[in-house]
TrEMBL record:
Full protein name: Shikimate kinase
Localization: Cytoplasm
Pfam families: SKI
Amino acids binding ATP: A23, S24, G25, K26, T27, T28, R131
Function comment: Catalyzes the specific phosphorylation of the 3-hydroxyl group of shikimic acid using ATP as a cosubstrate.
Keywords noted in UniProt: Amino-acid biosynthesis, Aromatic amino acid biosynthesis, ATP-binding, Cytoplasm, Kinase, Magnesium, Metal-binding, Nucleotide-binding, Transferase
EC id: 2.7.1.71
Family of the protein in this entry: Belongs to the shikimate kinase family.
Cofactor: Mg(2+)
Species of the source: Solidesulfovibrio carbinoliphilus subsp. oakridgensis
Binding site for substrate: D45, R69, G91, R150
Length: 184
């Protein structure tokens, strides 16, 4: 039985953004957090597919990663005009300065994850249409290199870092952080 929504954060019209590497649990946490808070949930990758009628992998294969990043930025910019959302971003959404500026206007949770656990999760559910390879490196090497490159950006943007945990515990960490902000 789902829990009742918690009382809103003081600025309950501020969006909550979930950032972190692919397979870190952003979509899972985002849906659960939105339900608990009684807020709408938006998954930027799913919204891309819905709006464009193609997978991320199809666009990347045809036009490259830069084209996807531009499309992702446009979707984030549009989403950021709405208020009170819980938003799961793509792992690379933090790469563009304009995206970072938009994310910084909300509450940002960084979902931390061990590279080996990310590899396990991705191997268990490759979903290459939504999670195409980023480089020509081997799978595990790509995950480690990508995380090493992006983690400083994730940390700089984060209002709170959520350690790798199961879905229930991760939700409780997020709710506790929101409760602390409510007391500020």
């Amino acid at each position: 039985m789902p829990s009742a929504p918690v009382s809103p954060v003081p600025d309950d019209d501020v969006n909550i953004y979930l950032i972190g590497p692919r397979a870190s649990g952003k979509t899972t946490l985002g849906a659960r957090l939105a339900e608990r808070l009684g807020r709408p949930f938006v998954d930027l990758d799913a919204l891309f597919v819905e709006r464009n009628g193609e997978t991320i992998a199809d666009l990347v294969a045809r036009e490259g990663w830069d084209a996807f990043r531009r499309a992702e930025a446009a979707i984030l910019a549009e989403t950021a005009t709405r208020r009170g959302l819980v938003v799961a971003t793509g792992g690379g959404a933090v790469l563009l300065p304009e995206n970072r500026a938009l994310l910084a206007k909300g509450r940002v949770f960084y979902l931390q994850a061990d590279p080996d656990r990310l590899a396990e999760r991705l191997l268990a559910d490759m979903n290459e249409e939504q999670r195409p390879k980023l480089t020509e490196m081997g799978f595990r090497e790509e995950i480690k290199a990508t995380l090493a490159e992006r983690e400083p950006v994730y940390l700089a943007l984060a209002n709170a870092c959520l350690p790798e945990r199961g879905p229930d515990e991760l939700l409780e960490f997020a709710l506790r952080a929101l409760a602390m902000w409510r007391k500020e």
